[in-house]
Write a structure and sequence with these properties.
The chain has seven helices and no strands. It is an all-alpha fold and about 190 residues long. The chain folds into three domains: about 45 residues, no CATH class; about 80 residues; about 50 residues. The longest helix has 29 residues.
Length: about 190
């Protein structure tokens, strides 16, 4: 076995041992097996932080943190600067669509980031709906009702399509709350 491949495998075994993913004696056996009888100290030094899984986790955390910070900045600018409302609405809408499409694409690959992108897209869509309501339909309860119902419909459809229970429940509960509010106000 080539040395880089051996080092990767030994790093993974050490990571398993450090995080107790396998019993210690199994890890020792596997390490001795992949070291091909040589002492582990004679080989290049291995470290559990060089394993593949921790580096992927760090990369995912950085991506999520960067997207969340960018979204917070976008929403803070969106709700504070009213002179750029139309341009920012288009930007927020495009960002929401991109996040939804990315979430659907990643869901096909069973990527762990898919629900995060889906959730961020839903937050942007809801924020855009609220901003449109406060700008154009302030005081019109029917418009607010329709915008919230549309958001709940998107959540329900997305939850059913991607099999995300929290979106399905959110959509159903939101629609039930809207319907009950509408019925109570009619009486």
């Amino acid at each position: 076995m080539t040395n880089p491949r051996k080092k990767i495998i030994l790093n993974e075994i050490l990571f398993w041992k450090q995080n107790k993913l396998l019993p210690e004696h199994y890890c020792d056996f596997l390490a001795a097996l992949y070291a091909e009888g040589a002492d582990l100290e004679e080989l290049e030094p291995v470290h559990h932080k060089q394993a593949i899984l921790p580096s992927e986790k760090r990369k995912l955390l950085l991506i999520i943190a960067g997207i969340c910070i960018a979204m917070i900045m976008l929403l803070s600018i969106y709700f504070t600067i009213s002179s750029l409302m139309i341009i920012l609405t288009v930007v927020v809408g495009i960002a929401a669509v991109i996040l939804f499409l990315t979430a659907f694409r990643m869901a096909r690959k069973n990527d762990l980031l898919a629900p995060v992108f889906h959730l961020l897209g839903a937050i942007l869509l809801f924020s855009m709906s609220i901003r449109i309501y406060t700008t154009y339909f302030n005081g019109n309860n029917i418009a607010l009702f329709c915008l919230i119902a549309a958001n709940c419909g998107v959540w329900l459809w997305s939850g059913l399509k991607m099999k995300l229970l929290y979106f399905t429940v959110s959509g159903v509960l939101g629609l039930l709350a809207l319907i009950s509010y509408y019925i109570i106000n009619l009486l």
